[in-house]
Each structure stands twice: as C-alpha cells, then as structure tokens.
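Job type: complex structure
Entries:
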Amino acid sequence: VVLEVAVLDVVSSMQDAFEESFRKASPLIAGSAGYISHELRRCVEKSNRYLLLVQWQTLEDHTVGFRSSQQYAEWKRLLHPFYDPFPMVEHYVELGQCPTMGRQ
Amino acid sequence: VVLEVAVLDVVSSMQDAFEESFRKASPLIAGSAGYISHELRRCVEKSNRYLLLVQWQTLEDHTVGFRSSQQYAEWKRLLHPFYDPFPMVEHYVELGQCPTMGRQ
C-alpha cells in the first residue's frame, strides 16, 4: 500500500466552495484502478489548510493510472482552482516496503 | 479524533539508527492517555524523509498530556537528535469537527 499525502492550502474565501467541490470530485478518485481509500481533513493550526490522504495499491496506480485518466481531467477542473500555492504531493510506504510491491 | 502529522527529515547517514530508536520509542507514545494509534512511513520521493501519523482522542491529549509527560522527555532523548531540520507538527480533524470534541 502506498499513501499519497498532499497538504492543500485553499484560498481562504473559497473554503466552503472547495469542500463542496471535493464532495463532487470524490467519486472520480474512488473509481480509479488501485484506489483503496481516501480522507480529507482540516488543519487545526491553519484554518485554510487541508490534508488529503489517499491509499493506493501501488505508486503507479496514482502517478500513471489516475493522473492519465479522463477522471483526473475532471478532478483538476473541480479542485485545482482552489489551491494557492499549488500543492506538493508525496508518497509514503511502510518501513522496508518497495513502492511497487503491490503491482500485479 | 485528532490526527497528528509530522514530516520528519532525518540525517541521511543515521536512518537505520533512527528506525531502531523509533522502535524503542514507540511504547512511550502508545502508553499515553488518549493515544489511539500511530504509524511511521518512509517517503518515496525523498529517501531520508519519514511521515509520522498519530491518532489522538483530543488535541490536548497530545499537546498537553503527552508533551508534559516523563515519557515525552525520553521520547525526545531517543528521537530528536536525528532530525534536521527540527520538524513542524500539525493536527488535522475531520471536516466540521472541533478539535476538542472527544474530550470527556
């Protein structure tokens, strides 16, 4: 399992619209091959910051599969306008795990 | 539930020692009041980066309870020497949740 981690800074005046857009976008990622689960959380220390955690079976299920899909084009259209700055995305594996271990 | 999130950059030559020290330190946090679970993961993109996720019942279980405990003094002694730079810690709640909602 590979955990995608993105800290999302959202334009402060647009947080309600972002949360609403995220609800609409959620099925797009949830239907992608290799998707396991996701959660969006809100930061206590910085009110316009969110944390997106997505569990994927392999790194490539996210970086190749989802990002080259039609669904991702719609995901971007729904969510990217809210980010300032544009977020950095990282992936984390369990200690000792290879990021492609789950691939068939 | 409040999720503590810390991105840990570890001195590159000391990663094995850090992972060993983390194993020793784990029972210190796991025995703390309000602790639910934790995981340490390794970054795919940056080999000396780790992500620590800890679930607490409330924000104060971490920021007041754990951090003022004897166990935290030992946690610091075991782990803080490995960090460069010293990490920023943030807390994340579910959308719409108040950070102290779980407190009795």
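Summary: Residues 80 and 86 of chain B are 8 Å apart (CA to CA). The helical segments of chain B are 15-30, 59-66, 70-79.
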